[in-house]
Design a protein that fits this description.
This protein is α+β, with helices and mostly antiparallel strands. It contains ten helices and 17 strands. It is globular. The two termini are about 25 Å apart.
Length: about 425
């Protein structure tokens, strides 16, 4: 009760002194604004749009041998109790901007016993403002400081976005590069039920006789003819845009008639992600500062004869699905539409999906503080660790520029319902 009164007093003081008006909730769709496609640059295409023929090697069966040291599952065990006073910047944040994202999280979390009271109380709030939200948070949540396995409290904060691509539903010389839907022969095995120590570990492959073998690599999928021919969702005009879409996990395809369609992550082939930027740095072809999306595109234009081999060095391949029209944003791993500048991707071994988190970092390429209440609604293949987050900037080229430039250090606090059971 004392914490609640203290926080409310601080809010009233801030409201009296600040000249910034808090934005009211408007009764309209919070849909992502995507600017028109920039057509200044020619799309990156391979000569004659030819894909190399890949010789299929004999498949080796997948073996899973769980051991005590194979996979460590923290189960939120690296969250340390903290105080509300630690959240420097919370009272200055426009909490109303984060509220719709929290309500989205609650559509899933309300089904979980430990989250149900907090979510039911949130839905009952009809006219939220900063003071009401602060009172609600302090009444239903406790604060925990995120930590890495070594006990450190600072980590890497990167950015991601929803790219905008030019595409068609039909293949042509202008649109030669496919986005594939999830293959019917792709098998995904969740090992948690059989091996609890392998929770969050999934095995993907395909059957050859009675053996589960690794699924096809990028080189095998992009071979000519492709083993996935006939399963295309869309055809895209730029091979690098397809590659980066697979890294981001969702995007917007602008069709020839100007209509924009959202595509989202469906599944992945099970192979580990290998960074082509890191490889170009290792080979001395790019510096660390040059290894951005723009820098890699510039390299690709000058080395079309080497481009396919570079892409094939990353065996990971992502499959997509067309999302229903009218969604307010791409779907995150939680299964709800994510919100620009209020959603972060996290490692679900350390932070519960759906949880409110307070992020303290700096703006891209800047020392300007960026301190906001966020929602942990997504995950990512490269997002590993207790203090590691990917900040969702939104859709289109401007969001992409911010996401590409964001490589900041930051700290994370997690809000969990009072009485939340943490591991011993």
């Amino acid at each position: 009760m004392k914490k609640t009164v203290l926080l409310l007093c601080m809010v009233l003081m801030m409201t009296a002194c600040s000249k910034r008006a808090v934005k009211p909730i408007e009764g309209k769709c919070d849909c992502p604004t995507v600017e028109k496609v920039v057509t200044e640059e020619q799309p990156i295409q391979l000569p004659n749009n030819e894909a190399p023929v890949v010789t299929q090697t004999e498949a080796t069966s997948i073996k899973v041998t769980p051991t005590k040291s194979a996979v460590k599952v923290p189960q939120y065990g690296y969250l340390a109790p903290a105080d509300w006073q630690d959240l420097d910047g919370l009272l200055q944040d426009d909490l109303i901007a984060a509220w719709p994202a929290w309500i989205q999280s609650c559509t899933r979390l309300v089904k979980k016993t430990q989250w149900k009271p907090a979510c039911e109380a949130a839905v009952a709030v009809k006219k939220p403002n900063n003071a009401i939200i602060i009172d609600y948070l302090s009444s239903y949540f406790d604060v925990y400081r995120a930590q890495n396995e070594d006990g450190s409290t600072s980590g890497l904060i990167t950015g991601y976005y929803q790219p905008l691509l030019k595409g068609s539903r039909k293949q042509s010389a202008q649109y030669p590069y496919p986005l594939y839907r999830e293959p019917k022969d792709l098998i995904t095995v969740d090992l948690a039920d059989t091996y609890p120590e392998l929770k969050f570990k999934r095995v993907r492959g395909r059957l050859e006789g009675k053996k589960l073998v690794p699924y096809r690599t990028r080189a095998e999928i992009d071979a000519s003819p492709s083993p996935l021919a006939g399963t295309e969702v869309f055809w895209i005009n730029d091979i690098i845009d397809v590659f980066f879409l697979q890294i981001q996990g969702s995007g917007v395809v602008q069709l020839e008639n100007g209509k924009q369609v959202q595509v989202g992550y469906a599944n992945q082939n099970g192979h580990a992600y290998h960074s082509i930027g890191r490889l170009l740095i290792k080979r001395g072809e790019l510096t660390l500062a040059q290894a951005s999306m723009r820098g890699i595109k510039n390299w690709a234009r000058k080395h079309l004869d080497q481009l396919q081999a570079l892409l094939n060095s990353n065996p990971s391949y992502v499959f997509f699905r067309e999302l229903p029209a009218g969604l307010p944003g791409p779907l995150g791993a939680l299964g709800v539409p994510i919100k620009a500048q209020r959603t972060v991707a996290v490692d679900p071994r350390f932070i519960p999906l759906g949880a409110p988190v307070f992020l303290s970092t700096t703006a891209p390429n800047s020392t300007k503080p960026l301190k906001q209440l966020m929602l942990a609604q997504d995950t990512g293949g490269a997002i590993k660790g207790g203090v590691r987050a990917d900040f969702f900037w939104g859709a289109g080229h401007k969001a992409g520029a911010k996401a590409g430039a964001m490589k900041q250090q930051g700290k994370i606090w997690v809000l969990l319902p009072k009485g939340f059971k943490l591991p011993d």
